[in-house]
């Protein structure tokens, strides 16, 4: 491999290069000696990457046995940035895995005993690497940093101590800077799906940790593919095959690899608690030194999750290889883990997202804390509680209406906000887009070693970056469908409710506009207004039903018989409602029937003697219309356009066609058909899949 500097060159006026170590995504790494003889690794930041080096200073003060120390960040005379860091003589985990004999015998000298796993490592080795990585990463998290690029190549074995490296730079280089041909395809295998959406919470490190653990145990990656896009799609949609890892690790890996970041363990400690090494994990030391490093005052721990007890016996439990971080997890901590806790965490996570809910939540918890911490006697507390209840009851005459009014505004606002935020998350194309851009081959001038079974081939000294293959439209749609399918029932219900509220407003506007136009020369009376009210109600109910149908089917394509039958049932229901409402509102249904009823071959039960259609005719008419036109299609979130007037026109023409066989009053029929499609399109969510497809292919 070619390096810019040769042995014995002096850089930064005080370091003598001894040899080049390797070339990474950010630049060349050298082994060098300081003037006093100290061994250091120098990383020369190349390729004109816009590195926010000022941020790295935060990392310079981090000290932890499981982190590769950053000594300094300097610029040379050519204004080239260099990162001076601790030199780690041992191999990185990537090299260890690549050197391990796939047949199960381990070639590395450091390996301890035990049965070999498919990766070639023993379980002891896996524990050593994983616990070391966890301890280092927990320290970063406690200092408010997210690694963002956890992968085997960034984990080092320094004389038996596992160290996490490369944590300073990735934090401060945005996705856009990692675009083009600067990034290794290998990194992509460890990247959490939400990174593409610009989400960089610590959950992305948890996800990467899950992938690493999977690879250590199974000997291969959970999500692999021939192209970056294929890998991205797998990260976004596939479930890991957990049958390939020992059963005691399935839970932790399954949780870490959740697509939804809020479903993952919320921190390293929680993740470790799910491993068989839970008894050995303890983060207090990590937390303490991280806060010191971050310049925070010592006192109460930052949060209950990081509070843990020290245990002098733990080093044995943790194993001799990880002596610096005592790994123990208290029973209290374990008790907090599990499904209940995660569920409550998710709830609080959501609530904390919304400022008003957060403020209310904070006030309530403050009140609860005050109540619990109060030194009042139980009798005193009882008196206070009764007094508060009495005051509330006395004032209920104005408090309740006020509360109802606030709810009237707040609930729709909250639901709409939820849906908009969800919509942003489900637009998985954006994720793929950014992934696609950020993860292309790196034109290293060194070969990157990968086990063929594990790694997608990457560039070598002669290879040029290869264009990424494109995702077809159907693949993109499939990916988006799967992404839509992952949403919870609550979210779906909330979306449906919001659509219903929007369509109600549209129906009201529809009513007002049509009534103003239609009744401008007529004296206002209930009889005159009732057809408009009838029409608006029918259109709204029809749109509501159609939106529900589209929501139920949005996770898959299809227009087969079962769907048409279901749509026909919905149409029949709308026909019935149309008939009943007309009856209630006294709207005449014999208006403008365009053909001789007696001439139709329809059953006589469809029409009264006067020619007025019965409920059966109305039901049959709309059932035929809904089944024939696949009415749910224009409301599908993956439709081509948010609002297609073509679809409205098709509905109107389709209704006219059905009218030729099963007549109903006109123009009411056409208005209802067109109105339902128009209104449901306006109020249905929409994912711009066309642009997603283009972005993915870009
Ligand atoms: N502090 C260090 N001590 C010893 N070797 C190091 C050190 N830091 C990096 N290396 C080695 O230098 C080589 C290049 O490392 P670098 O971190 O730049 O690239 P990478 O991890 O392969 O990719 P990326 O930068 O995209 O994460 C690797 O072989 C790595 O093991």
UniProtKB/TrEMBL annotation:
Q: Which Pfam families match?
A: Pkinase (PF00069)
Q: Which domain of life is it from?
A: Bacteria
Q: Which CDD domains match?
A: STKc_PknB_like
Q: Where does ATP bind?
A: 43
PROSITE patterns referenced in this protein's UniProt entry, alphabetically: PROTEIN_KINASE_ATP, PROTEIN_KINASE_DOM
Locate the transmembrane regions by residue number.
398-416, 496-519, 531-553, 565-582, 611-631, 643-662, 668-687
Record's InterPro entries? Answer: Kinase-like_dom_sf (IPR011009), NEK_Ser/Thr_kinase (IPR050660), Prot_kinase_dom (IPR000719), Protein_kinase_ATP_BS (IPR017441)
State which Enzyme Commission number(s) the record gives.
2.7.11.1
What is the enzyme's class at the highest EC level?
Answer: transferase
**Region Disordered: which residues?**
432-477
Biased composition range(s): Polar residues: 451-474
Give the GO molecular function terms: ATP binding; protein serine/threonine kinase activity
Domain named Protein kinase: residues: 15-278
Q: Which UniProt keywords apply?
A: ATP-binding, Kinase, Membrane, Nucleotide-binding, Transferase, Transmembrane, Transmembrane helix
What family is this?
Belongs to the protein kinase superfamily. NEK Ser/Thr protein kinase family. NIMA subfamily.
The entry's protein name is: non-specific serine/threonine protein kinase
Native organism is Allorhodopirellula solitaria
Lineage, highest ranks first: Bacteria, Pseudomonadati, Planctomycetota, Planctomycetia, Pirellulales
């Amino acid at each position: 491999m070619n390096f810019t500097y040769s042995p014995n060159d002096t850089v930064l006026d005080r370091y003598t290069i001894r040899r080049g170590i390797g070339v990474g995504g950010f630049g060349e790494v050298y082994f060098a000696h300081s003037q006093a003889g100290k061994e250091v690794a120098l990383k020369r930041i190349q390729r004109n990457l816009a590195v926010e080096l000022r941020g790295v200073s935060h990392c310079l003060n981090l000290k932890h046995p499981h982190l590769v120390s950053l000594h300094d960040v300097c610029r040379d005379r050519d204004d080239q940035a260099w990162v001076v860091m601790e030199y780690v003589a041992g191999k990185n985990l990537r090299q260890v895995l690549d050197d391990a004999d796939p047949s199960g015998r381990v070639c590395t000298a450091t390996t301890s005993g035990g049965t070999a796993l498919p990766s070639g490592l023993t379980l002891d080795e896996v524990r050593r690497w994983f616990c070391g990585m966890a301890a280092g990463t927990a320290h970063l998290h406690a200092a408010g940093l997210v690694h963002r690029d956890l992968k085997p190549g960034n984990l080092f074995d320094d004389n038996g101590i596992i160290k996490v490296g490369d944590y300073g730079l990735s934090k401060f280089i945005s996705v856009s800077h990692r675009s083009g041909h600067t990034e290794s395809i290998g990194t992509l295998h460890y990247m959490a799906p939400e990174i593409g959406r610009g989400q960089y919470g610590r959950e992305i490190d948890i996800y990467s940790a899950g992938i690493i653990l999977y690879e250590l145990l199974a000997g291969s990656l959970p999500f692999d593919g021939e192209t970056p896009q294929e890998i991205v799609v797998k990260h976004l949609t596939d479930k890991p095959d957990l049958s390939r890892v020992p059963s005691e690790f399935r839970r932790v890996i399954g949780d870490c690899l959740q697509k939804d970041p809020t479903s993952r363990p919320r921190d390293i400690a929680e993740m470790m608690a799910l491993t068989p090494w839970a008894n050995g994990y303890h983060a207090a030391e990590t937390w303490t030194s991280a806060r010191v490093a971050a310049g925070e005052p010592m006192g109460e721990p930052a949060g209950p999750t990081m509070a843990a007890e020290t245990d002098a016996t733990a080093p044995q439990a943790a194993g001799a290889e990880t002596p610096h971080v005592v790994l123990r997890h208290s029973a209290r901590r374990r008790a907090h883990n599990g499904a209940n806790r995660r569920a409550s965490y998710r709830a609080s996570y959501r609530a904390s997202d919304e400022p008003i809910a957060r403020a209310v939540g904070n006030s309530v918890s403050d009140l609860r804390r005050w109540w619990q911490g109060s030194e009042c006697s139980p009798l005193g507390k009882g008196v206070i509680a009764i007094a508060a209840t009495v005051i509330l009851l006395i004032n209920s005459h104005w408090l309740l209406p006020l509360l109802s009014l606030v709810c009237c505004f707040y609930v729709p606002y909250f639901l709409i906000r939820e849906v908009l935020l969800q919509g942003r998350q489900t637009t998985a194309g954006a994720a793929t887009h950014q992934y696609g851009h950020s993860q292309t081959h790196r034109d290293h001038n060194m070969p990157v070693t990968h086990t063929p079974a594990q790694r997608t081939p990457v560039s070598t000294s002669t290879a040029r970056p290869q264009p990424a293959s494109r995702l077809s439209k159907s693949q993109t749609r499939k990916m988006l469908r799967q992404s839509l399918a992952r949403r919870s029932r609550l979210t779906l219900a909330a979306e449906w409710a919001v659509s219903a509220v929007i369509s109600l407003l549209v129906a009201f506007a529809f009513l007002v506009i049509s009534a103003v136009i239609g009744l401008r020369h007529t004296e206002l009376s209930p009889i005159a207004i009732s057809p408009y009210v009838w029409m608006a109600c029918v259109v709204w109910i029809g749109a509501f039903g159609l939106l529900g149908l589209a929501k139920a089917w949005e996770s898959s394509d299809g227009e087969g018989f079962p769907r048409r039958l279901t749509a026909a049932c919905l149409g029949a229901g709308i026909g019935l409602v149309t008939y009943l409402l007309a009856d209630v509102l006294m709207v005449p249904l014999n208006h403008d029937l365009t053909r001789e009823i007696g001439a139709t071959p329809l059953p006589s039960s469809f029409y009264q003697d006067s020619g007025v259609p019965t409920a059966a005719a109305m039901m049959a008419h709309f059932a035929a219309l809904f089944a024939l036109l696949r009415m749910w299609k224009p409301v599908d979130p993956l439709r081509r356009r948010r609002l297609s007037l073509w679809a409205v026109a098709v509905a109107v023409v389709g209704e006219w066609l059905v009218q030729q066989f099963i007549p109903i009053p006109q123009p009411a029929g056409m208005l209802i058909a067109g109105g339902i499609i128009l209104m449901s399109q306006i109020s249905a969510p929409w994912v711009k899949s066309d642009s997603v497809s283009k972005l993915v292919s870009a």
